[in-house]
Amino acid sequence: MLIAFGAFIFADIIIIKMFGIGLFIAVLLDASIIRMVLIPIFMILFGELN
User: Fold this and answer.
1) FRET pair for 32, CA 20 to 30 Å: which of 18, 25, 40, 42?
2) Across residues 8-12, what is the average pLDDT?
3) In the prediction, which pLDDT does 44 show?
């Protein structure tokens, strides 16, 4: 997904570039911070409720 959204950055239309940059950053943050950091922390905190 990063490659697909990153390809939008090279478009000639400014709106497409803005969408490409926004989606690229959103997917990157979701993959790195949310899935690798926050989910394991909440799984540990909730323990048996998980």
Assistant:
1) 18
2) 89
3) 93
Q: Closest Cα to residue 5, out of 14, 16, 46?
A: 16
20 with 8: CB under 8 angstroms?
A: yes
Measure Cα distances from 21 to 14, 45, 47, 49 in Å: 11, 34, 37, 37
| Amino acid letter for position 30 | D
Q: Which domain holds residue 16?
A: 2-49
Query: In three state form, how does the secondary structure of 17-31 look?
Result: HHHHHHHHHHHHHHH
Mean pLDDT of the chain: 89
Positive or negative: CA dihedral 9, 13, 14, 15 = negative
Entry pTM: 0.67
